[in-house]
Automatic annotation (TrEMBL):
A GO molecular-function descriptor: methyltransferase activity
Polar residues bias: start-end ranges: 1-10
Keywords assigned by UniProt, alphabetized: Methyltransferase, Transferase
Organism: Streptomyces bangladeshensis
Pfam families in the cross-refs: MTS
Official protein name in the record: Class I SAM-dependent methyltransferase
Entry-linked InterPro entries: DNA_methylase_N6_adenine_CS, SAM-dependent_MTases_sf, Small_mtfrase_dom
Length: 369
């Protein structure tokens, strides 16, 4: 291993770029295939970044070795589900910080000049935009960029649409079919117009259009999500019936049906992708409930698609949810439940397995009181 002492005041060889918001390393050493995993782990835990100059496959092997070393110290379950959840989140954040210190240099044209490196230019351009100079990126995040690009090219099958959806980088993919099926099967209220709030890939907006709603408006705060949703409706030939807007949660006007599938867990996201899972303080959930009466037609319905995982983890109670619904001037007109079918619900090695195994996803039909 060759070493270059770089303090926080010294310039890095290129601007640091982390989609997860990881801070730039305090020091940087140049590492290659000669470095031992124990040395790399010690340096990374100390806050030192490792700029990889060796074989690309060797970098991936080192990353896996670092993962094994970190995972040996995973915390044991705590006394309560909430404590276990918070311990698990803190451990995952520490894990991400340490693994994120193994970095690679992208050239000004988004190429990666390492032995046996794959072609990354197309994936990086899709994720980061057109090349605008060199950048230093965590290898782990670059692997996520490559994986996301494969998802986008292959697409995610959505049985309710009998089609594939091609999620853009940083947009939560509709891999959990149960919530899509809830929207595909629930009885539709009389509605010429529907709003899909937090549309993401636009999958629910497309389902509503396919079910016969004449006009659907999807909104999202994320520019990446809006681009992904527009791509979805264009691929499916629904651009004449579905429009995509934002960044406001609600579009102007009222609708006979307003659908919202907010992030299911109250918590701070640590990456762009986690914004589809974690919602600090349940802000989006409460904004949907508070704004629904002003945007719902008198005989319309608001559909809230929400998992009760937060309840099993002790992060929110059912009474909290019902109180928020009532405080917004709404009533529950009905509810349809379904069990998750994703692999993690059966993974007994997951520290949150008990909560995941008990999880129920519901479509709450809300109406004005």
């Amino acid at each position: 291993m060759s070493t270059t002492d770089r303090t926080t005041n010294d310039p890095l060889p290129a601007p640091w770029h982390s989609e997860s918001g990881l801070p730039a390393p305090r020091r940087l050493v140049v590492a290659d295939d000669r470095i031992r995993a124990a040395t790399a782990h010690r340096l990374a835990c100390e806050g030192t970044g490792l700029l990889w100059r060796g074989d690309y496959q060797g970098a991936r092997q080192l990353l896996r070795a670092l993962e094994r070393r970190i995972d040996r110290k995973a915390p044991a379950p705590a006394a309560t589900p909430a404590e276990t959840f918070h311990l698990h989140r803190r451990f995952r954040a520490h894990r991400a910080r340490v693994l994120g210190r193994l970095a690679v240099l992208l050239e000004p044209d988004h190429t990666l000049r390492l032995r046996r490196a794959p072609a990354v230019r197309a994936a990086c351009t899709a994720a980061y935009g057109p090349p605008a100079g060199p950048r230093l990126v965590p290898l782990r995040e670059l692997l996520g960029v490559l994986s996301a690009h494969q998802w986008r090219e292959r697409g995610v099958p959505v049985p309710a649409l009998d089609a594939r959806v091609h999620p853009h980088y940083g947009v939560f993919a509709p891999v959990r079919a149960e919530y899509v099926d809830l929207v595909a099967r629930a009885p539709l209220p009389p509605a010429d117009t529907a709003f899909d709030l937090g549309t993401g890939t636009g999958v629910l907006a497309a389902v509503l259009a396919r079910r016969g709603v004449g006009r659907v408006v999807g909104t999202d705060i994320s520019p990446r999500a809006r681009a992904s949703a527009l791509d979805t409706v264009c691929r499916l030939g629904l651009a004449d019936r579905v429009t995509i807007g934002g960044p406001d949660l609600f579009p102007p006007g009222r609708a006979g049906l307003v659908v919202c599938n907010p992030p299911w867990l109250p918590g701070r996201p640590t990456s762009t992708l986690e914004q589809g899972v974690y919602d600090p303080g349940g802000r989006m959930l409460h904004a949907f409930l508070a704004g629904l009466p002003e945007h719902l037609e008198p005989a319309g319905e608001g559909w809230l698609i929400l998992s009760d995982l937060a309840e099993h983890l002790g992060l929110r109670t059912r009474a909290d949810l019902l109180t928020a619904i009532e405080a917004a001037g709404l009533r529950v007109a009905g509810r349809t439940d379904t069990r998750p079918r994703h692999p993690r619900s059966a993974d007994r090695t997951d520290p949150l397995h008990a909560a995941r195994a008990a999880e129920v996803t519901s479509l709450w039909r809300l109406a004005l009181r």
